[in-house]
Every structure is written in structure tokens, then in C-alpha cells.
Amino acid sequence: xxxxxxxKGYAITGxxxxxxxxxxxxxxxxxxxxxxxxxADEIRFALLQGACAAQLKVDVDxxxxxIYDFSANSYTEVRSGKKDIxxxxxxxxxxxxELKRIR
Length: 103
Fold this sequence. Notes:
The chain is of the alpha+beta class. It is 34% helix and 21% strand. β1 and β2 (27-33) form a beta hairpin. α1 packs across α2.
């Protein structure tokens, strides 16, 4: 994930296990897990959606993060709106600012 110059030296990474064309258009970014959680509460999915959209050069509405949970043999779409993606980015920069402060 690309960060502003002021955060040079920090890396925010992740991995999409599978990228598919979505039947309704756009893309599905799949992640796999062995646990069941409240996925929608995690900032990483909004960040992932925004980063995938930026890399694919498409609108964030065209990317749907999906978690396949092996323990439940089911999947969950974790789609974020533009406001939530922007808020996740702001929360990430606040976190990085705090890291810089205590370093």
C-alpha cells in the first residue's frame, strides 16, 4: 500500500489470495481464514478494498473483499463505502503518527 512521503520507512502490506471477476461487474478480492469473526469491524478490509482499487485503477465500489472461513465453510462479503475507506486511511495515519511519536 502506497503511503505519503512523511511515512517513508513504514510498510503496510497484505496479500489477496485470489482475485476474481465479480459476476455483477468489478472484482472480488478473496482472503482465506480458519476463524469466524466480526469481519466488518476490522480496518484491514476497508484498507484492502482501497488498495486493490488503486492498484487496479478502478473505483472502490468495483472491488469486493471476501473472506472465506474454512472453519464455518462459508464466505462473507466485507464491502466498505467510500467514507469508511477514507476513515480507515485517516485511522491508519493516526496510528502511524503515534508510532513516529514513540519511536
